[in-house]
Amino acid sequence: MPILLNEGRRFVMPSISFNHTLRPRRIDATLLFATIILVTIGLIMVYSSTFYQGSTYLRWEILRVIAGVIALIIGTKLHYVRFSGNLKNIILVITIGILLLTIILGKRVAGAKRWIGIIQPAEFAKLSLILYLAGYFAERIGETQDSFKKILPPLAVTGVLILLTVIQPAIGTSLILTATTLTIFFLAGVKIKYMAIISLVALAGFLILIFVFPHSRNRIKNFWSGNRYQQEQSKIGIGSGCLFGKGLGEGRQKFKFLPKMATDFIFAAIGEEFGFFGSTLIFILFLIILLRGLKIAQTADEYFGFLLASGITCMLFLYALIHIGVTLGVLPPTGQPLPFISYGGSALVTNLFALGQVLNISKFRMTRICPGHLASLNGRSALRDTRRALPHLSRSGHTLRVAVIRYLLSVHRCPFSVIRYLRLWRIIRCPLPVSRVLPPPSSLTPSSLNPPKQICQEAI
Questions:
Q1: What pLDDT digit, counting tens, does each position of 200-209 carry?
Q2: Rounded Cα distance, 449 and 438, in Å
Q3: Ranges of each domain in the chain
Q4: CB atoms within 10 A of CB 328
Q5: What pTM did the predictor assign?
Q6: Residues 6+ positions from 23 with CB-CB distance below 8 Å
Q7: What is one cellular component GO term in this UniProt entry (predicted)?
Q8: Using CA atoms, how far apart are residues 389 and 393, in angstroms rounded to an integer?
Q9: Largest alpha-carbon pair distance within the chain?
């Protein structure tokens, strides 16, 4: 069975006798291609769903796409590990400051203060929260699973961001933040009972907020009472599209039958003009982004990269599911746009930069090593070499395998995906501090390591 190894960084793995440097790979072409298709469809649908001043909307959207492409390129070129340090905290503080300014100086639109000029700061809060949570859990791997106190800081940060978005009010954004937090908590290995408690508290909080803000209360009331004009018009448009749609630009709901069609209900325009097959294509593209993003996360060379890629892709897919659910009448209106497609600048630029970070993570993924070139962790030679390098591990009170993997994690030379691939995930639940059972890294000498004879260039 092949073993996954780090790509693009130098590391030492004493138990499999390998010390080598591999060049970074190219970015994930499938993920990039799916994103380009969605952005292109977005340009077409923004023009088609605005029956008046369509050219003006298209020009503005082209400018926003250009800004988004620049953000995508920057995100692809900027190494994601830079955000694992203090930079994520600086971004979080700046985001909180901008949200406070929005509440004080923001422009009121439809009864809500969500804008500073042409910028919607709440969109930046989603990415900054993912960066912070991924960095927090990556710095404390193995410490946050069995102690509720360890997850209080990320809960406090999430609570502050949710509070600042609720005051605007932006209930839909608050729901996205809550769901994203729970997703990262689950991926980080937080106990289910803790997540259940957090979920119940969050549900109770949102029920209270619904009754505090009349705007949200009216939306929920209209949804349950059947007085859902926008959603009924949305379903009429989607249903009239049948299998193949009415054709590009031939939709009728855009003639003021369905308000905010280019933003909150653009999926209805897609269903009306391209039919069931066009709507299915959009869903498949988002599903491709989710699956490729999770695959990139699975083969990331850092635990931070694993959490970051997983959090971003799950957030984008959840974003799309909520928008589609609203247009189909399954969920009450939330005001959330469809990623990469709906008319808007802040969400587009933020989402493209976030996806650029996922593409950057894909450049530093694992590659396959031919069988027979390396000894596995279960082999006798691997255990013999490890005992020679770490003589006292067998007397540490833990199994040799657990001690070895804890060592590989402690010196940050073993990629996280190797441990996941070898099914040694239980290592992060070992409560004993590393310093009590592990020798210093100097006890391992590179001279005792044997390089592999051949490296397969096959990608995952």
A1: 988 888 788 7
A2: 19
A3: 1-25+366-460, 27-362
A4: 16
A5: 0.75
A6: 7, 8
A7: plasma membrane
A8: 9
A9: 77
